[in-house]
Amino acid sequence: MLQLGRVVEMDSNAGAALGRTHRIGHLVKQILVHGFLIFASVLMLLPFVWMVLSALKLPFEIAARPVVWLPEVPQWSNFTRAWEMLDFGRLMLNSVIVTVLTSAGVIMISSLTGYALAKLDFPGKNVLFVVVLSLMMVPFFMLMVPVYVIINKLGWVNSLAGVIVPEIAPGFGIFLMRQFMMGLPDELLDAARIDGASEFRIFWQIAMPLSRAGLTALGVFACIYHWDNFLWPSLILISPETMTIPIGLHRLYQPNLFSMYNVFMAGSTLAILPMLIFFFIAQRHFIEGIAMTGIKE
Q1: Pair 222, 102: CB distance under 8 Å
Q2: pTM (2 d.p.)
Q3: Using only C-alpha atoms, what is the Rg of the chain?
Q4: FRET pair for 47, CA 20 to 30 Å: which of 68, 102, 132, 149?
């Protein structure tokens, strides 16, 4: 009995030691993971912090070596200069129109098409979905020439319509909403059909409210992308009256003129503020939408 007690005690001590080792290993793992995440976050925030601080500097402070991080005297007038030189009010109005209308079109067309591909049965549905996936694999710059020819023939060059219309049916948005709506319960939709609801009413009053998280995620993606979009608008928009913020900032940027760097950074800071505010407001729904969007068949 004495030997058995010693064996039990040794086993309990070994178990306790193993538990402590496991806890220490888990703690070390957590420290390493969080340390890496903090380092990566600082690394990603560094350009943004540099931009904001440079917006408050004098030109020679930006060009100084070694690097001067904090301005000696914050130059708040740089923001006023950027606003006046760029006619920032007009640029922001154009950007808001393009972003809101394009994002609304993306949400509506993507949700309609995604609902049809996820919940309706019709000939060629799988072929159409493959076409959508194929379009996601084709870079937009390969389609710019034919799209530009069409826009030119429609007379939409140098108009906001020429920027908005080609962008309202993205393959990614259709794919995202199709995957999200695959998770909606078929029993609920069938019950609505039995009650005599039309397919559009089912889509509008049942599928859309249940897909709010996915729609928010898609809306955040679309708004950020189209607010920052430069390549396609730079081909279509010519006159200052129709330009958006990225094109206006590009006109201000002078690589060899250090005296304008602080004004350019101030303009860039003003340009990014609306999207930062929008993201912080919608981030909870955005994260929820991404988490609930899976690969379902």
Answers
A1: yes
A2: 0.81
A3: 27
A4: 102
